Amino acid sequence: MRNTTKTLAIALTAGALTLGLTACGADSGSDKNGALVVAASPVPHAEILNYIKDNLAEKAGLKLEVKEFTDYNTPNTATEDGSVDANYFQNQPFLDDFNKKKGTHIVPVVTVHLEPLGLYSHSVKKADDLKSGGTVAIPNDTVNEARALKLLDANGIIKLKSGVGNEATPKDIADNPKGLKFKELEAAQLPRSLDDVDAAVINGNYAIEADLKPAKDALVLESPKDNPYGNFLAVKKGNEDDPRVKKLAKLLTSPEVKKFIKDKYDGSVIASF
Questions:
Q1: For residue range 134-145, what is the model confidence (pLDDT) as tens digits?
Q2: Under DSSP, is residue 270 helix (H, G, I), strand (E, B) or coil?
Q3: Would you put residue 226 in left (φ > 0), alpha (ψ -120 to 50) or beta?
Q4: How would you list the strands of the sheet with 86-90, edge to edge?
Q5: pLDDT in tens, 213-238
Q6: CA 212 → CA 174, 204, 229, distances in Å?
Q7: Of 17, 38, 148, 190, which has the fewest beta carbons less than 10 angstroms from its beta carbon?
């Protein structure tokens, strides 16, 4: 009798364990049928995603939820820990730097658009009119700071040392004819700094949020030709084949989205497909 009871207990335990594993498997499968949650910067990323959500997703059989973030760190950490399924806000040099420093495993899925980085000012109309000893605000994160300095170098405002890459800082300036000073600020704060500095190099998304029109208002603007800073949809490594991710990737590079970008942003955001 004791052996029979023991055998029954083992059988019940095994059955419960099997049921539990089956239930976990069911939950995992149902997740793939739920809404795809995507972290995005408000402009233009969330606007593009919401256009898809409102106009294209249902026909494609995609449930889409858009979560907006105003910083450049949380979307990747949220994607890494599974709080969201994907993100759409960044470029390859930024992602490479983030993965290296934070130990995350985020990978790109499809490149969608470019937001040209620009130099803006409330006090001068041309870059040549920047005063000697003036202050220029630039992003303080590694990649965007280097990107800002490269923009100034490409337009003859400064000259960087030969061979500097995506970690360039003001210390890598070889020639500074106007003796400009550089104020390093969080990227989101740069539009608000324009009343306090002579000029600021501002990321396209933050410029648009501040009602600046990069194609018209920038003193100098990045060229889209051979530009490595295209923004893409990204996921945690291993989730690239999620059917929902594939559907969104296809919609993000559709003719409808290309037209939406062209019509809404008038050259301030440029489709990369």
A1: 999 999 999 999
A2: strand
A3: left
A4: 64-68, 36-40, 86-90, 231-236, 106-114, 270-271
A5: 999 999 999 988 889 999 999 999 99
A6: 31, 9, 20
A7: 17
Tell me if 44 sits within 8 A of 209, measured CB to CB. Answer: no
Cα dihedral 262/264/267/273 (nearest 10): -40
Peptide bond into 44 cis (omega under 30): yes
- Cα torsion angle, 89, 93, 94, 96, sign: positive
Predicted TM-score of the model (pTM)? 0.78
Encoding tokens for residue 42? 């408000």
User: How far apart are alpha carbons 63 and 61 in whole angstroms?
Assistant: 7
Tokens found for residue 134: 């003036």
Cα dihedral 171, 174, 180, 185 sign: negative
